[in-house]
């Protein structure tokens, strides 16, 4: 990445002071040649597997901002970012690692990081330290293996509602209001993938269901299956799905890309959204875009949703000095000032540092925070809603929404599957 000479007069003294406290900032000036730190970043994809230009642009903007900031602390290190699309990320890391040219640090989604870990392409040594105090216990667990943190969180992408205020002046506060607005002519888009629709379950029993990651043999799931009211809970949820499917103005999308595209094209008034899609909607709708919490069972209730995240993991080709530099950079990224900078650069992201305080004037950040506080984080040990069970639930939701399966049949099928 090109090294810029941009000055950061406004916040530089604060940043330097914070970094002195963490031990990252040296008092002596570096006069030698900077040592490279190779960082691979997973990016999203566009149509037909192509990299999305806007995704790359946003990633580069965030990376450049962090790079410029880090130079203030470590003049002896040059950050070199490589952006790789998700479908090629693991193979690319494997190829370069096999040549002894693998990255020092990787920033990737949970499923990708999990694949790297299983393939032996990332260092699984414990990464404990003072950073543990900056994130929630739930997030610490999400980056752990056998109870020990082996990765570091980067940013999270809570699920919220995106609303076109011109088409829907009064966003719904409850699930019932959402269907009422659809019945009144407002076009509503919903994803048919279970992990993206889990927030509509709205039952305390479902938190265990979602948190488990649907692992076969999970003790919590088996215990859940023995509760007499679990099948009625699934039946209530699937009836809501079925009723939504009967509405002419409620459209289900298996592809979130298609869902986002329809919203950007103003074919939909309301959709659930997260991550990079929020940035796209801001660019397309401007002041017409409103970000709100997802609707719950009753007004004021924040439903339980799945929050995606990006993780930082460490390469296996690094020397001891490179590994130390990578861990210093990861600690820097988790500082409050850097987390704030990332939140400004990546519109749909929310910081993992729990010490962040946001102005009530920012509806977007307030909605993201409310969702993050009521969510299951994707984790290494049970990447949320994965594998055959996740695919089976996707099919079930789609069949119920299309009227091909009754809610009663679906509830029985899910309840029976929990016993396996």
Question: How would you portray this structure in words?
Answer:
The protein is an alpha/beta fold and 420 residues long. It is built from 17 helices and 14 strands. The strands form 4 sheets. Strands 1, 2, 3, 6, 12, 13 and 14 form a 7-stranded mixed beta sheet that branches. Strands 10-7-11 form a 3-stranded antiparallel beta sheet, with helices on one face. A hairpin with a 2-residue loop joins strand 4 and strand 5. The longest helix has 21 residues. The N terminus is likely disordered.
Provide a compact summary of the structure.
The chain is built from 17 helices and 14 strands.
Shape-level CATH architecture of the largest domain: 3-Layer(aba) Sandwich
Q: Just give the CATH class of the largest domain.
A: Alpha Beta
Helix and strand composition category: alpha/beta
Q: Kindly identify the CATH topology of the largest domain.
A: D-Maltodextrin-Binding Protein, domain 2
Topology:
Blueprint: H1 12-22, E1 35-43, H2 53-73, E2 77-85, H3 86-98, E3 105-109, H4 110-118, H5 137-142, E4 144-145, E5 148-149, E6 152-157, E7 160-164, H6 175-183, E8 188-191, H7 194-197, H8 204-211, H9 219-225, H10 230-246, E9 250-253, H11 256-264, E10 270-273, H12 276-285, E11 289-292, E12 305-314, H13 320-333, H14 336-345, E13 350-351, H15 363-372, E14 375-377, H16 387-401, H17 407-418
Parallel strand pairs: 1-2, 1-3, 8-9, 12-14
Antiparallel strand pairs: 3-12, 4-5, 6-12, 6-13, 7-10, 7-11
Helix pairs in contact: 2-14, 10-17, 11-12, 16-17
